[in-house]
TrEMBL record:
Keywords: 3Fe-4S, Electron transport, Iron, Iron-sulfur, Metal-binding, Transport. It comes from Jatrophihabitans cynanchi. Pfam families: Fer4_15. The keyword Iron applies. It comes from the Bacteria. The keyword Transferase does not apply. Its cofactor is [3Fe-4S] cluster. InterPro entries: 3Fe4S_ferredoxin, Fe-S_cluster_ET. This is Ferredoxin. Ferredoxins are iron-sulfur proteins that transfer electrons in a wide variety of metabolic reactions.
Length: 64
C-alpha cells in the first residue's frame, strides 16, 4: 500500500501532519505536504488512514 499526494490539491492545512507526524511533514518553501513514508508499515496504516480522512482538500489517497 502506498500513500499518494496530489500536490495540486494540497492546501497546506497540515491536518495530515497532526494525524501522522511520522508520515507527513510540511515543506516550508512550498507550504505543501511532503510524504515522508510512501509505503507505510501495517503499524502505520491506521495513522495513514486517519490522515487521508482528515485532509479537507482530499489531496491524499491510499493506493493498494
Ligand atoms: S491535510 Fe491535505 S491539504 Fe493539508 S497538508 Fe495534508 S495533504 Fe495537504
Amino acid at each position: 500500500m502506498r500513500i499518494k499526494l496530489d500536490e495540486d490539491l494540497c492546501m497546506g492545512y497540515a491536518n495530515c501532519v497532526v494525524q501522522a507526524p511520522d508520515l507527513f511533514d510540511i515543506d516550508e518553501e512550498t507550504d505543501k505536504a511532503v510524504v515522508l513514508v510512501t509505503a507505510p508499515s501495517s503499524e502505520q496504516l491506521p495513522a495513514a488512514k486517519a490522515a487521508v480522512q482528515a485532509c479537507p482538500a482530499m489531496a491524499l489517497r491510499l493506493e493498494y
